[in-house]
Structure formats: structure tokens, C-alpha cells
Amino acid sequence: xxxxxxxxxxxxxxxxxxxxxxxxxxxxxxxxxxxxxxxxxxxxxxxxxxxxxxxxxxxxxxxxxxxxxxxxxxxxxxxxxxxxxxxxxxxxxxxxxxxxxxxxxxxxxxxxxxxxxxxxxxxxxxxxxxxxxxxxxxxxxxxxxxxxxxxxxxxxxxxxxxxxxxxxxxxxxxxxxxxxxxxxxxxxxxxxxxxxxxxxxxxxxxxxxxxxxxxxxxxxxxxxxxxxxxxxxxxxxxxxxx
Length: 242
Fold this sequence. Notes:
The protein is an alpha+beta fold. It has one domain: Glutaredoxin (3-Layer(aba) Sandwich). It has ten helices and six strands; from the N terminus they run βαβααααααααββαββ. The protein has helices at residues 18-33, 58-69, 73-79, 81-89, 105-116, 120-133, 141-150, 155-163, 168-180, 203-215; strands at 6-13, 39-46, 188-191, 195-198, 235-236, 239-240. A four-stranded mixed sheet has the order 2-1-3-4. The radius of gyration is 18 Å and the shape is globular. The two termini are 34 Å apart. One of its GO terms (molecular function) is oxidoreductase activity. This is DsbA family oxidoreductase.
């Protein structure tokens, strides 16, 4: 729960989820317009869209999606155009033709280290750039180490985390918490510990929820989403909305 001057927004997301990065950008815009709290603290929580993911080239990944949805590779590529366009509006350069998929568990472990060093959001964005723009293999330790060091994490600490299983329990706890809330897709936002909404909601919707949370922090919220909000675009185990 937030203190008297700080509003906390907990966000469940995955590193390979494009809607998560659009959702975070929308959240940034909403926070910029919010009046009231002295600060808004964004806390990122782990979620794995595919816990069994293996490294795949863009071609392999696209072909796998086409088989899964029983459609053509051309159709899969076409349906990503909306995400690319929306990303560009938010300053995100999605290059799905470069993205090398992989398991994100170690990336989430590093994000927990970054939280302890007040660098979590910075690392999240840097990992997104590595995966979606630069085409660095997101499951490889070299990719993760470079991103972590780039945002200011201590190289020795990073190496220690990657060499062992530090923060694995924290990642598992985040995933379990999402399961308890019946979260099946990300991004998923929980504002002030009590108001939740799923998907990459527009900035104006996020802004209304933030303002409502700040205006009435003690109200019991039976329904997480209000003010006309509906489920926004998200990524789940079966893929990303397009």
C-alpha cells in the first residue's frame, strides 16, 4: 500500500510482450498528467508468457505462430503492423524482423536486482530495446549482462546473479501472485493495491484510474475497472492481441 504522499502502481509484464511496453508508455503519459500525489512509484512484477520458451530466430518464431494459429506467415506479419504503428506513436521501434525469442526467467531475476538498486524501470526499457529493436537474443546471458551494465548495475553483482539462482524465488512469487488474481494476460496494472485493470489501456483510462485511486484511497473497490474502461490489448500464453 502506498504511503500518504506516494501512489504505487504494480505492473505485471513480460520482457517479450509488445503490449507491455506500449502499456508502460501509456502509464508514463498518464502519470505526467496526474495531479495530487507527490510521486507515483511503478513496481514491475514478473510474468512469463511462455515458461518453456527456447531460442528462436524471427523466421522460426513467425513460422511457429503461423502453425499455432493455422494461418500463413504473411498473415502473422501483417497482423503485427498495428503494434508497430502504435509503438512508433509512443517512441518504441518495434522490429519484429530482428527479435530473437528465448526464455525470460533470467531477465526477470535481473529486474528484481534492479529494483533493489532503483534501476528497475530503466532496465525494463533497456531489455525491451535489446529484444525488440536491436535483435539481441533475450535469453542469452551476454544480452542480459550488457543491458544491466548499461543502465548502471554493478557488473560483479550482475555476474553473481546470472551465475546462480538469486531472485528466483521472487520471480516465482510474482508469477504465483498473478495466478491468484486470475491474471492470464499482460500487462496487468494494480493501482494503490486495490484497483486493477488489464491490457495496454489508453493514457486517459489509466489517468482516470490513477485519479480515482488518489481521490478515494480508502474506498473498497469491488470492481477493478471503471469509468468505461474495457480490457485492453494484451499478451497471453496463446499470443498477443493484434
